[in-house]
Batch of 2 targets.
Target 1
Amino acid sequence: MTHANVTEREGPPPARYEPDDRWVPVDRRWFGLDRTTILPAAIVLAVAIVMSIVIPQINDAVSYDDPVVAGDVMELQYGITFVPAPGWGITDGVREADTPVTGSFPPRAALVNGGAMFTVYTAPFTGDAQALLEQIKKTSDALATEKSLRVSDDSSAITTESGIRGVLTSYSNSSTDGVIAAFVVDGKGIEVVSTGPSDVAPAITDDIARMIVSIGHRTGEGK
């Protein structure tokens, strides 16, 4: 399985993406990898619950008519971008080439591929990536049910190809695994949430890893 390169939080600065078996903590293997926010804790948690419980149950039934093709780039609010994997379906979000009439890109983008889902969300956040991840975990634990995905206490550092540093952790329940990545750049939080079955194909794992490390930020774009 190809994985994104990560290092332990206490270790030396993380290297950029270079697939190897350390893509996720050894005891949390899946596609090894939720969302971001300065929003109230209840909203953060509500989204986490939807991602971890509702989405995995309906992914197989999700239909779309907007497949990703090579060369596509998704853009979110505040100049956040990422490169979607060809063959995935766009269920929410806008390509960078399709600037909305309002002139402002949405804060969220979502893709699906079979039973796997990949979502990126951005919002203002005061704090660093670790603080964002801890806030996500705190609210998730507070509102979790027996079926909710539980966020791991372990996290690893990760650096995108454009040099944005963040943290990565896994979460799971009895039937579904997922990954949460958190980044903060210029006062904007970026949360990545990906969920899917434990037996997800290696190709999907690699797609998710590459999409995460493709996240970038257009300097000077604050709207």
Target 2
Amino acid sequence: MTAYGTERFVAATIDSVLAQTRTDWELIAVDNGGSDEMAAIIGRYLPDPRIILIRQENRGIRGGVTAAADAATGRYLCVLNSDDLLLPEYCERVGAMIETDPGIDAVGCDGELFYDPDDGTPPPKSYFASIGRRSVPDPSRAATLDEFLDEGVPLYIGAFRREVWDVHRGFDPATTDVEPDVALWLSAAAAGDDVRVLPDRLARMRLRPDSASRHPARADDFQERLLHSFHTVVAQQHARGGLAESRALREMRYERALRTARCSLLAGDVDAARKAARDAYRERHTLRAAAVVAALHISPDALRWVHPVKNTAQRTIERARWRISRVGGP
């Protein structure tokens, strides 16, 4: 577990590890920025010999995870963010799967998503739902590279045998142009490793406003790293053709193009907005993309005004539906 700027959440994360129904785990907590408050919070748990604290200068997520992996003594390695939560049966379920067969190299799973702060807007149903996965994973067979290209990779909170982690260089600090967890899953599948995926939601991920995937200023870089992860890993492993036809890649390019169109329009660059909208339509022939293309050519000023109003109305409707669902009716 690498920790930076999550002093408000890290205790709950550690508590979720302590609550595991399987108890033969080890938690390497890396204070990845020299925060005295963070060290003090984690320090309260150090009487438990299963919890180890490492303090270092901020070396980013890759440097933090690598330091934890180097210090770990277990047979399996699992990445945990310091604001996420494990469900009590995580270690038991994942451990049982990877120990069923010594030929199984890694095990992934689904997870619940929740907003923090909770403004009443319902989050996506699950991690798999958020990435548009259509099929239910079958843990009785190994996942394939084609499956990952088409459906997306499992949640980053997965378990890897140490030797598999080492072969694929884990969260390599020298590789900064990819999303390390995505690259790791893809590398394992491309190499023919036996990767199993449980359909169960065994962890909870906190969606914060400053998360890379939600923060407008960081979303483009995040999407670029995702795309590069797919392209780089497949090229390195000499996988068979068809990458350009990957549904997951098309979906990422589609969403990126629509976001670029929106940002360009709000910045007053109508030509760039039109080009991005056409790019989105080329990736996916949806009514949404077609409507944006048409509106940008007919009345871009009206579209600029409609967008924030539409978002506000949609959030209001979603919050109302969410509250009704919680109490069972109006």
